[in-house]
Amino acid sequence: MAGTNSERQLIAEGPAIILVHPQLGENIGMVARAMANFGLAELRLVNPRDGWPSEKAISAASKADHVIAATKVYSSLEAAVADLNFVYATTARDRYGYKEVRSPVVAAETLRTRFRAGEATGILFGRERTGLTNEEIALADELVTFPVNPAFASLNLAQAVLLMSYEWMKTGMGSLEETAFSALPQRPAKKDELQGLFDHVEEALDARGYFRPAAKKPKLIENLRSALTRPSFTGSEIQVLRGIVSCLDRFTRDAPRGTPSPNRTRNRRPKAERDDE
């Protein structure tokens, strides 16, 4: 699978993801995959409708086997959160109460701080159709709500978990500008290489009558050079561009590279004419 590398370090830490009465095994599997993408590994299920384990969940998890294998099932939400020090509950609906409501960014930072302090934390996610009940919300310490379109605020279960997992992953990065890989270093083109490109392109165009009328040739060349210097080419890119010009200069659509020379073909008379001599 693209992006999966068993030889690299597997990150598996952070808050428990707790699904309350999840309905479909496929959704549980996609949640496991989202967790694995962003370094979470502890999945807890409260009374999954279709039971556990689930072949559909395993299939949908797309190789997030370590999450699936460690999944725990509980008969009540109280039991699922009993060993945790701090719990967030996610909600898409307005909840008017006394619990603090946080954005995913702030919630993830709080979870990271508590994780580093050695606390056990968790995030509650409700049923696919109806979310969490008020009684279930009461078991959480604070709420998390997502900045979504107010006229279309419903997220599917895996999407909601993915968003929180992503924010969690970000809090563990040294810089938000970090990337998993970067472009290979390349040497910037030298001025003589650029000049060679200019001369090559100009000669090829001039030979084909591009610079017409002649009075406009200086301005056309100026515009051409401006266009070719704007991208800050590397040395290898200059070579590629000159190779393109050389190919266009030497070959045509009717006689592409690898076919007999168009000059030889063009200059040879038909065999019947030669036989008449």
UniProtKB/TrEMBL annotation:
- At the top level, the lineage of the source is Bacteria
Keyword tags: Cytoplasm, Methyltransferase, S-adenosyl-L-methionine, Transferase, tRNA processing
List locations, semicolon-separated: Cytoplasm
Chain intervals for the UniProt region annotation (Disordered): 252-277
* Top EC class of this enzyme: transferase
A Gene Ontology molecular function term of the record: tRNA (cytidine(32)-2'-O)-methyltransferase activity
Q: One Pfam match, by short name?
A: SpoU_methylase
- Cleavable signal peptide: none
Q: Which residues form the tRNA/rRNA methyltransferase SpoU type domain?
A: 16-166
UniProt keyword annotation of S-adenosyl-L-methionine present:
yes
* The protein's Enzyme Commission number: 2.1.1.200
| Catalytic reaction annotation | cytidine(32) in tRNA + S-adenosyl-L-methionine = 2'-O-methylcytidine(32) in tRNA + S-adenosyl-L-homocysteine + H(+); uridine(32) in tRNA + S-adenosyl-L-methionine = 2'-O-methyluridine(32) in tRNA + S-adenosyl-L-homocysteine + H(+)
The record's annotation in PANTHER family points to:
TRNA/RRNA METHYLTRANSFERASE, TRNA_RRNA METHYLTRANSFERASE SPOU TYPE DOMAIN-CONTAINING PROTEIN
Family assignment? Belongs to the class IV-like SAM-binding methyltransferase superfamily. RNA methyltransferase TrmH family.
Q: Which NCBIfam families match?
A: rRNA_methyl_1
Q: What does this protein do?
A: Catalyzes the formation of 2'O-methylated cytidine (Cm32) or 2'O-methylated uridine (Um32) at position 32 in tRNA.
Q: What is the protein name for this chain?
A: tRNA (cytidine/uridine-2'-O-)-methyltransferase TrmJ
